[in-house]
Design brief:
By secondary structure, the protein is mainly α. Helix content is about 65%, strand content about 5%. GO terms for molecular function: transition metal ion binding.
Length: about 100
């Protein structure tokens, strides 16, 4: 659908597709499924974050709230939060690309 979309549009479309492929029929993920999805699909951004207090807080919340499910909006907020604290983001910021 976004064959001619921008790189950013394609990135968000991919995030939505990955989320939708993992979500239940109501379009939500359990906290355990969210954690598993982060580990399998977002490992580069969360690798090395295990000792950071904010990361531990986020993961603890996923472990503690077994009943509650996460919708796409909350999932995207979580992705952005994890991205902003990631060491990988700093590496990306330090890179310069040319076209």
């Amino acid at each position: 659908a976004l064959g001619k979309g921008s790189d950013l549009e394609k990135a968000f479309a991919t995030a939505a597709l990955v989320y939708n492929n993992s979500a239940d029929p109501e379009g939500k993920l359990s906290k355990a499924e969210t954690k598993r999805l982060l580990q399998t699909q977002f490992g580069g951004f969360i690798r090395g974050q295990e000792n950071k207090p904010k990361y531990q807080e986020i993961i603890s919340a996923l472990d503690e709230e077994l009943e509650n499910k996460m919708d796409f909006e909350d999932f995207m907020i979580l992705l952005v939060s994890l991205t902003l604290m990631s060491d990988l983001l700093q590496e990306i910021k330090n890179m310069k690309t040319t076209k």
